[in-house]
Amino acid sequence: MKHPTSTSDDKARQADLDGHPTDISQSLLFGLLRAREAIMGRMRPIQRAHGVTEPQWRVLRTLAAKPGIEATELARSTLLLQPSLTRILRDLRDAGLIERRSEGASPRRSGIFISKAGLELVAGAYPELNAVMDEIEQRYGREAMKALTRDLFELTRSLS
């Protein structure tokens, strides 16, 4: 089947798109993705050197700050989908980095806790990861970083 060719009217409509950039690489979404990858490209090797993936690190770092959290809240806090989190928790448990324990009187309610080995891993990796963030802040500027962080939180809040 032959596809119709673009007309000059089609190109004019593509160029406008209600004021949005026609080059999607210049869009907000791509800008956010590029920034994330620029930062994570420096973080991933450190995480890998400590034997964890990026999502596993997010779980461990969250549990270091919020021990005893339930899986639903952990998924929300780490921005992970529940099926992915289930697999990550299994792998972290098998590695001895986390544990599940019952909370309170109800044995059905369990919290997820970071283990001593998990805390040691976080404590070992944190200085290196923090040094990367310090370098990024130095290159970008402390005030610019604070403003960007504040603006991103505000953008997220406004969309909630």
In short:
With 160 residues, the protein is mainly α. The chain has seven helices and two strands; from the N terminus they run αααααββαα.
What would your notes on this structure say?
The chain has 160 residues and is mainly alpha-helical. The protein is 67% helix and 9% strand. It contains seven helices and two strands, in the order αααααββαα. The chain has helices at 8-16, 28-49, 54-65, 71-78, 82-94, 116-140, 142-159, and strands at 98-103, 106-114. It has a two-stranded antiparallel ribbon. The protein is globular, with a radius of gyration of 22 Å.
Distance between the termini: 45 Å
What fraction strand?
Answer: 5-15%
- Continuous helix count: 7
Rg to the nearest angstrom? 22 Å
| Largest β-sheet summary | 2 strands, antiparallel
The low-confidence parts are none
| Fraction of residues in helix | 55-70%
What structural class should be given to the helix and strand makeup? Answer: mainly alpha
Q: What is the H-and-E element order?
A: HHHHHEEHH
Total beta-strand segments? 2
Globular, elongated, flat, extended or rod-shaped: what is the shape? globular
Q: How much is the average pLDDT?
A: 88
**Major sheet: arrangement of strands:** 1-2
